[in-house]
Amino acid sequence: MTKLIINGLKASIEGKQILKGINLEINGGEVHAVMGPNGTGKSTLSSVLMGHPKYDVTDGFASLDGVDLLEIDVDERARAGLFLAMQYPSEITGVTNADFLRSAMNARRGEGNELSLIKFIRLMEARMKNLEMNPEFAHRYLNEGFSGGEKKRNEILQMMLLEPKVAILDEIDSGLDIDALRIVADGVNAMRTEERSFLIITHYQRLLTYIKPDYVHVMMQGRLVKSGGPELAHKVEAEGYDWIKEELGITDETVGQVE
């Protein structure tokens, strides 16, 4: 069964420590949501797990099904089954969406097991239809000229085609109107299985109305300071984070300033 284990994970950027000891275990089929104020390390956690080079891991470990993620490169982490839907997807001129997706799928499948062009086109078109995407987007350069909502749908399209073991969704709801949010959430829910897990990073409970989490965690000061079920997200939505700060003796000055 799929298992992502994060233990004592610490990371810094330019000498400033952001993650200060993250402990989290995600089993197959589980959906975990991480919430928290701005600047507490939520996006840093996703970037570190995926291997962004600007972050330095200073302590701890992270493994996926026994594979030490911190000891392998980004492409190897992807082949191991980790996927990141980015908060700010990059635009790549000269590479069409279809070419990028097919290359990514075949890299994941490995040499000798590549997907034929016809099968790829059929699969891509079916997934785009699920996400209510214009078929013309397959032939446009990757994310170039896409709206914020179109970029987010494209991230979910990538996830649906790559079929990862663990999908990290970094503020996938940012900038989406209610219709686009519903479509994106439907795409995520369609991918939920007993083996596939999700780590959802979000500021708002509204996404969790559509994607029901099993566990909700609140991050402050680079740590997961409170965990619970879906009711925790509802309480945060209704009351904010001040009650958690009061419980833990955290002041606004100590919450943090870097994501």
TrEMBL record:
The keyword Ribosomal protein does not apply. Pfam families: ABC_tran (PF00005). Coiled coil: none annotated. It comes from the Bacteria. The keyword Nucleotide-binding applies. InterPro entries: AAA+_ATPase, ABC_transporter-like_ATP-bd, ABC_transporter-like_CS, FeS-cluster_ATPase_SufC, P-loop_NTPase. Keywords: ATP-binding, Nucleotide-binding. Residues 4-246 form the ABC transporter domain. This is Fe-S cluster assembly ATPase SufC. The gene is sufC. Belongs to the ABC transporter superfamily. Ycf16 family. It comes from Paenibacillus sepulcri. SMART domains: AAA.
